[in-house]
Amino acid sequence: xxxxxxxxxxxxxxxxxxxxxxxxxxxxxxxxxxxxxxxxxxxxxxxxxxxxxxxxxxxxxxxxxxxxxxxxxxxxxxxxxxxxxxxxxxxxxxxxxxxxxxxxxxxxxxxxxxxxxxxxxx
Length: 122
Prior knowledge:
Layout: E1 2-7, E2 10-13, E3 18-26, E4 30-39, E5 46-51, E6 57-59, E7 67-72, E8 77-82, E9 91-100, E10 109-112, E11 116-121
Parallel strand pairs: 2-11
Antiparallel strand pairs: 1-3, 3-8, 4-5, 4-9, 5-6, 7-8, 9-10, 9-11
């Protein structure tokens, strides 16, 4: 079993900052890509940021220049530093990890965390 536990969400004013964390635990042989999406009720899930095991990053257009994704491979943890937050950033933020659960099985399985609410007040 693999668990992804996210934390760090909350309520912040426009222009403020938050830092999200998401740690993978359980039966984890190797963690490949990690990242974040966000979901607003009634809308499609939106890419926020992705990071490879080597540190290459991809950002959604709406967060470029304001959000920074990073990871600690030793802790199987991904972080999302969110600055200059706007009301339109309000969403449930979902972390993901592409994991190889056991040695000898080359398949990567994508796991999702339960999500953490971020609310930005105007």
